[in-house]
């Protein structure tokens, strides 16, 4: 049986304001980290700056996607524009993977030839970064439960906060013990964490864009529910997918018994009622076939 999404919704204007504040905060932080990284010679600070820059880009993409997603359906996009948020999430996870791979390469090069590093600059800017990363994560925390687009942002910011903590620790070890190898080692650790987050989350947007079945709906349960309604003989050519992130849809052919065919409208209403109540499927396209004229040997799934 499906699970209903019971989240406290934030109104669009308030949500947009939160994302906008996060964009400005991350933009200023990125500049400060790049300057600090160059002055101190710290790769981990520049790594964190690159991560923050990808955050800022992610925020801009997410902000634009939120605006576009609210457009109504039209002749060019008959399903509406809601899926743009899924595309934005996929772009943002992909950029995380690219940043992660690049940082591992740079960290490895620095391990071989550790440069001179100014520890105090690293600690101070790392502390500022931690405050801003924590603020941005807090702004997007309550929004991420209802949007894969904002969840991608939240994970960007959460990983940034952990990265900032690691940078502060690294700067402190350089100050106390001149352990310069710690800086590239922390960079590689940050990169591995970024890759872990990205690869563990990117499957969701890909599944949705590939028209995969909603992961929180029991597809076999949907089929059995329709089959068990009085007047239904069988179903085939089933397509269970997500129109948007939180809007499941069902297309299928329903084979009717002779008795069911005589009261087609009431059977159709019963099917739609069960789909909505049990699985929260509010969009269904049903094609009805009389048992004497049904497709022979039709596949349960797909349309062949």
From TrEMBL:
Entries under InterPro entries matching the protein: Cation_efflux, Cation_efflux_CTD, Cation_efflux_CTD_sf, Cation_efflux_TM, Cation_efflux_TMD_sf, CDF/SLC30A
Highest taxon in the source lineage: Bacteria
Domain Cation efflux protein cytoplasmic: 214-284
The keyword Ion transport is annotated on this UniProt entry: yes
Classification via Pfam families: Cation_efflux, ZT_dimer
Gene3D superfamilies, per the entry: Cation efflux protein transmembrane domain
Keyword Flavoprotein: no
GO CC list: plasma membrane
Domain Cation efflux protein transmembrane per the UniProt entry, residue ranges: 21-202
Membrane topology: Multi-pass membrane protein
SUPFAM superfamilies assigned to the protein according to its UniProt record, in alphabetical order: Cation efflux protein cytoplasmic domain-like (SSF160240), Cation efflux protein transmembrane domain-like (SSF161111)
TM stretches of this protein: 21-39, 45-65, 86-105, 117-141, 153-175, 181-199
NCBIfam families per UniProt: CDF
Sequence similarity: Belongs to the cation diffusion facilitator (CDF) transporter (TC 2.A.4) family. SLC30A subfamily.
Protein name: Cation transporter
